[in-house]
Amino acid sequence: MIKKQLIMEKALELFAKQGFEATSIQQITEHCSISKGAFYLSFKSKEELILALIEYFMTKFISDIDHQVTEAENEELLFTFYYAIFNSFYEHSDFAKVLLKEQTQTFNESFIVKMHEYDRLLDKIILTMIERLYGEEVTYTKYDLVYCIKGFIGNYSKLLLFYSTPVDLNLLAKSLVEKTNLLAKYTTITFISQELIESMNLPIHGEVTKEKILEIIEQKIVEMEESIEKESLVLLKQQLLEPTLNPAIVKGLLGNIQNHPHCKWVSYLLRNYFEY
Amino acid sequence: MIKKQLIMEKALELFAKQGFEATSIQQITEHCSISKGAFYLSFKSKEELILALIEYFMTKFISDIDHQVTEAENEELLFTFYYAIFNSFYEHSDFAKVLLKEQTQTFNESFIVKMHEYDRLLDKIILTMIERLYGEEVTYTKYDLVYCIKGFIGNYSKLLLFYSTPVDLNLLAKSLVEKTNLLAKYTTITFISQELIESMNLPIHGEVTKEKILEIIEQKIVEMEESIEKESLVLLKQQLLEPTLNPAIVKGLLGNIQNHPHCKWVSYLLRNYFEY
DNA sequence: TATACTAATGACTAATTGGTCAGTTGTCAA
DNA sequence: TTGACAACTGACCAATTAGTCATTAGTATA
After folding, report:
1. DSSP class of residue A202?
2. CA distance A260 to chain B (A)
3. A22 Cβ contacts chain C strand, under 7 Å
4. Contact B104 A156 (CB under 8 A)
5. Which residues of B touch A179 (CB under 8 A)?
6. What's the CA gap between B32 and B8, in Å, rounded?
7. Average pLDDT per 10 consecutive residues for chain A, totaling 276 residues
8. What is each CA distance from A92 to A53, A56, A265, in whole angstroms?
């Protein structure tokens, strides 16, 4: 397990520099100072490694952003959102670079499907956010606005990541908040409609089922050492199987696990499931 | 020469689907129904082919956009600009796809340098355009605005190219015109300053020199068959060596060659040089 | 110490890569 | 018909790729 972590970290460094295709397993193993065979003990192929990386970081990323957005007050919501995203990219800049590099690359079918899935989750977060902020004001423009916001994120991330300029994240977030507000308030002509979005998202993936969440919880429970968080997870698992607890208690339990580094994704899934 | 064209076209198809790295010369030669040796008679390496493709399309693209922008009246300027760009992308969608796919890819040093060069030319066109449109109104926000406009182009191009949805270019351009006007008129907080731009553009490339233009003109003259356009080029070449002609005549000559498919780039360079 | 086990190695394979070059073909003018 | 020359071919090369597997090293238990 620890070796898996090492490989993922070192591989990510190379992927960020060279991209997936241009990075050979040879290079990865050399960069880890392990043998080729050792690599294949941890991952059964290069593809599996890449998917593991995507999964690991995207679950962390999405759940973190979602948490910050749901916690924030309306007045600071947009700022918090932008700041959290860019900060996340900054902290995991290698992964963010890979993301930007490979987003239009036709590397692999399952890779694209996976990315699309997470992209949809981000869409949902942004949509909820602007509905909360602007309400009926943006009924007809909200999908266009979501696309613009994602565009801002992508474009300014490029700047952040590929030009080694020290950057004032505060100013960046403030500037994007203003732009977003402008577009939200004054836009009348939209290009992106709900229909267009839906026709693009044909491969819609079913919601995460209760069984899937259970599976993930059980795995986490096995992995974790005894702690309040583990105990909370066990209780939440029981609640999932048979709802008996008071909503306040459930919320409390969710709060318990939110900040545990390995539980953010589970926490996100459960919050969605219990509708908090 | 005709074979070179064939290879470029067929290679572009494959590049658009798979990207540079993932496309082998084997594949290209098979797709052209020629032998490997024949490929190396036209291009001395894969890299040379790619650079030739970039050069061929980007010169066409930049000069075309510049022409349309300089010709347009202020009222329709922004619309013309967006429409021309997306239309160009639509017409040469394979090339546009390659462009989007490879823009963050670290394929090759000279490739990046070349792309950066053309990117700067586009920057200049956009900057001139918004200065003309908004004047002093955007003195402090214009660099930020340029970046946003380029962002819009990139983001919406992705939609255009990678989702096979039939698209209303007219609506798209109109919607972006509105957004651009909004940002131009109301933006107060900017993230991108002139200093930031300049610090990013460290590898500034010197202007195209008179000698370089002469070189290109001479090559074109050799390639072209007898025609008004060729005659115009010869006269413009003399004017370049020894300015004797009336500005009106020069402008007329430039007009003569503007619409010749192989002279657009030369025309662009000359217009810049003679400052029309 | 002997046994049993997993973790790790790196030489190996088969396939593919970009690129070369001796030889073949086709097309002219003499 | 001949000779000259450019266009073209595809077998070939060295390098590199993802992935395998017999072998060995290390370690914990009996």
Report:
1. -
2. 34
3. no
4. no
5. 148, 183, 187
6. 10
7. 86 90 92 92 91 92 92 94 96 92 74 86 93 92 94 93 82 96 95 78 59 79 74 84 83 79 77 76
8. 12, 12, 17
